[in-house]
Amino acid sequence: MTISLTVNDEDVSVTAPPDTPLLWVLRDELKLTGTKYGCGIAQCGACTVRLDGSAVRSCQVAIGDAEGASVVTIEAANDAEAQAVKQAWRELDVVQCGFCQSGQIMQAADLLAQHPRPSDDVIDTVMGGNACRCATYARIRAAIHRAADILEG
Question: If you placed Cys at 85, which of 60, 120, 128, 147 could pair as Cys (CB 3.0 to 4.6 Å)?
Answer without folding.
Answer: 147
